[in-house]
Design a protein that fits this description.
The chain folds into three domains: about 1-90, Thrombin, subunit H; about 95-230; about 245-289, no CATH class. About 5% of the residues lie in helices and about 50% in strands. It has one helix spanning about 180-190; strands spanning about 1-5, 15-20, 25-30, 30-35, 40-45, 55-60, 60-65, 70-75, 90, 100-105, 110, 115-120, 130-135, 140, 150, 155-160, 165-170, 175, 195-205, 205-215, 220-225, 230, 245-250, 255-260, 265, 275, 280-285. The strands form seven sheets. Strands 14, 15, 16, 17 and 18 form a five-stranded antiparallel β-sheet that branches. It has a four-stranded antiparallel β-sheet with strand order 2-3-4-5, with no helix packed on it. Strands 6-7-8-9 form a four-stranded antiparallel β-sheet, with no helix packed on it. The longest helix is centred in the middle third of the chain and has 8 residues, at about 180-190.
């Protein structure tokens, strides 16, 4: 079942969410929202407090908000997603690009430019987060929504000074290539790469990294257990896994969102089962999915 908790803005890009024990911070359409878990009340953060947000994360009691088309991210007051002190802002200076994406993993914040990346940690200094010594990486990402947590590390669609469309896995702070020449040839033939959306899930002992390319209408999947890739598609409107993206697993069944059909579907090894269909973008509480 689902319960409507309110609506959020929609710019056609993925929404981003980060949770503390008491609050859920959501960014969608450049606007930030806070769902108070004790009351289930959804509140819009005023544009004068926080605006133009593309992604959010949570580390050590602090909410983090990436400001779109900039080199900066904001830091909240500790355990309060509604409060964003003006001085708690980090400007990334180790690469010249704007930040295209970030992701929290192992209490560290990986910040991606197009050609380079850098990793921050909660240092306890006056600015709260600082660069980890030696954690400057000569690989960035061509698609800000492609980095995901999987298999106790990170995977992403890469970019650097020589080109793009190789898929990387982090080994410490060293990228390891997991794509192959055939996959790279296919992806480099797409007219648009920067809209790629990544997500991960586990099914029957296999952990999967999924890359969905909306403009190219293509989905490629890496199986960590076998080290093999496969392509996904759909045959009819009843089978939508090729278009599914943004997966979570609140119960035994992984849950996907399908942008082409405005549905949330329960994914299994056979076929998906429709759990919810909505006419607009809604924030829902899912149970017994």
């Amino acid at each position: 079942t689902s319960v409507n908790r309110g609506t959020v803005a929609n710019d056609g890009l993925p929404a981003s969410m980060a949770a503390s024990p008491t609050q859920l911070l959501i960014s969608s359409g450049g606007t930030a929202y806070v769902l108070t878990l004790a009351t289930n009340v959804l509140t819009t953060i005023a544009s004068g407090t926080l605006t133009n947000v593309s992604m959010v994360e949570y580390i050590d009691g602090f909410f983090l908000a990436l400001i779109k088309d900039s080199q900066t991210f904001r830091i909240s007051t500790v355990v309060d997603a509604t409060s964003w002190p003006a001085l708690q802002i980090i400007t990334v200076s180790v690469f010249p690009d704007n930040i295209v994406g970030f992701i929290a993993d192992h209490r560290e914040l990986w910040v991606f430019g197009i050609t380079k990346s850098v990793v921050y940690f909660d240092s306890g200094s006056a600015q709260i987060f600082d660069v980890i010594p030696g954690a400057i990486i000569e690989k960035g990402t061509i698609a800000g929504f492609s980095p995901v947590r999987l298999d106790n590390t990170l995977f992403w669609l890469g970019g650097d000074e020589r080109g793009a469309a190789m898929v990387w896995r982090a080994s410490g702070y060293t990228p390891q290539r997991v794509s192959n020449h055939a996959i790279e040839f296919a992806m480099q033939g797409y007219t648009t790469l920067n809209d790629a959306i990544g997500y991960s899930y586990q099914d029957q002992g296999h952990s999967f990294y999924v890359l969905y390319f909306p403009t190219a209408n293509a989905t490629w999947v890496f199986d960590v257990a076998t080290g093999m890739w496969h392509e996904r598609g759909f045959l009819s409107l009843a089978v939508l896994l090729g278009h599914a993206h943004g997966l979570t697993a609140p119960a035994a069944i992984p849950v996907d969102g399908d942008s082409h059909a405005a549905k949330i579907v329960g994914q299994c090894i056979g076929v998906p089962h429709v759990l919810y269909r909505g006419a607009g973008w809604q924030v829902d509480s899912l149970a017994d999915a």
